[in-house]
Amino acid sequence: MSLDADQVRRVAELARLAVDDAELPVYAQELSSILNMVDQLQSANTEGVEPMAHPLNMVQRLRADAVTEKPDREAFQALAPQAEGGHYLVPRVIE
Amino acid sequence: MTNALHTLSVSELAQGLRDKSYSAVELAEHFLARIKAHDGHINALITCTENEALDDARRADAALAAGTAGALTGIPLVHKDIFLTEGVRTTCASRMLDNFVAPFDATVVAKLKQAGVVSLGKANMDEFAMGSSNETSYYGASRNPWDAERIAGGSSGGSAAAVAAGFAPLATGTDTGGSVRQPAALTGLTGLKPTYGRCSRWGIVAFASSLDQAGGFARSAEDLALMLGAMAGFDPKDSTSAQQDVPDYLAELAQPLAGIKIGRPREFFAAGLDAATGAAVDAAIEQYRQLGAEIVDISLPNVGLSVPTYYVVAPAEASSNLARFDGVRYGHRADSPADLKDLYSRSRGEGFGREVQRRIMIGAYVLSHGYYDAYYLQAQKVRQLIAADFERAFADVDLIIGPTTPTPAYKLGEKNNDPVTMYLDDIYTVSANLAGLPALSAPCGMVEGLPVGMQLIGPQFAEGRLLAATHAYQQATDWHLQRAEVAQ
Lengths: 95, 488
Hints:
The structure holds 2 protein chains of 2 kinds.
Chain A: H1 5-14, H2 24-38, H3 73-77, E1 83-84, E2 87-88
Antiparallel strand pairs in A: 1-2
Chain B: H1 10-18, H2 24-42, E1 45-48, H3 50-66, E2 76-80, H4 107-114, E3 118-123, E4 143-144, E5 147-151, H5 157-164, E6 170-174, H6 181-187, E7 190-193, E8 214-218, H7 221-231, H8 249-252, E9 261-265, H9 275-290, E10 294-298, H10 306-321, H11 340-351, H12 354-366, H13 372-394, E11 399-403, H14 419-424, H15 430-435, E12 439-447, E13 450-457, H16 463-476
Parallel strand pairs in B: 2-3, 2-6, 9-10, 9-11
Antiparallel strand pairs in B: 1-3, 4-5, 6-8, 7-8, 7-12, 11-13, 12-13
Helix pairs in contact in B: 2-3, 7-16, 10-12, 10-13
């Protein structure tokens, strides 16, 4: 499997990564090389094999629906590039 | 007080503290002075937390005076910069988090703090733990203390370089595909990746959530046993944390080796393994035979597909985990965004380095409509086959032995042209992550002045057996006592 520059542009857009046009062919070559390596997987016979999502054979634990700690909004928002009055600020979304 | 404190084991250091041969503050000062003298060259640390370290050390001295000290009270350590440390910058070696000061401690950090360790700083690593040479760090690569022209390994390269250079007797790391074991092998250290779920992932910046596990570096299995005992345990904050009691790993070191069956998978000694590295590992296997272990030839038929499986599963999980870096709540934000999409795309494009962007794109691609079944689902099925190979093997043997890496440390810049050549070097380590097994690398020889590591893999939660088998080897050999010149 190989990717061309247009496909890389599309994947980068889906992943919300701004990539310079000049970089697209370089990424196309690198990602194609990775996909070629990964294509070895097609040789495995996996008929009837259950996909494995997780290494531990465990049941998902449930916890009590109770407050254990209070988030410190001011401390967390101090990390934000732009916050005001308890809100995170972003460019205008609705005109 | 001796000038050679950095050559002592953790138990020896703890004894010296109890005997008042030196204080915890003096011990911290000794290691801080070594960092100042040598880290300009080695680049093992991203942040040195001198003031916090001396505060920790004063608390340790108070505990020692009060008689409440434990086995790790006052012992210096460095944390990989992927562990959140409250009030201390936590970068994950990325421009994205260059200015990020963590608002809370990772559980592993909190547990070690509770045990009385003195944290000296935050160790360099590959950006978001993606890399095998530490060269993807935004802060430049760590250098190998054995030869500064060579890699210290990755992704926990700074942690390994710090212990190998004598900056601290212990370091934390994380291992998603070999990121503790490979740098341990390349720098002559003992490094452990515990069973998936053994140590909490809470407060570790997530890379691939079904593979990530916290581990550690030390100079010996005995030192590691002390550290693991403090790190491990159930954590309600991590939904995949294992509800398993933590044994006394120090006591488990006494498990006898006689009668233990060790499997030697022929697939780990096939083409691609450097001859001298393979010879060093085979010599270690012979040593184990002499120590009373039975060596059995085994086969792991699907293990050859570990690297392609890993490079689907890990990027897929990474692309999902790294979606949180959006330039809104924390981390890098691009200047003057035109709109919200531009804010996301440019913040991420500027904040992430090339290797991280490659993996996000691979992940987004293999999860996308039309490719999901062929790549992601197929990889999850092959993962099941690989795990089944190990399960079959462990029905017959107690441990598995092989090389940790195909070659000793290579030169900085040598494998930068094609990402795949570097990925293929993970061939012996990634399968333990895919199957969730504990695995350890320990030094077993030298090739042209560079350390070689052997890898031991065990069944789930057999950390005690891994450490005991390594301890028995280290009682009979002295490879783990070899030190780089800078650490003498």
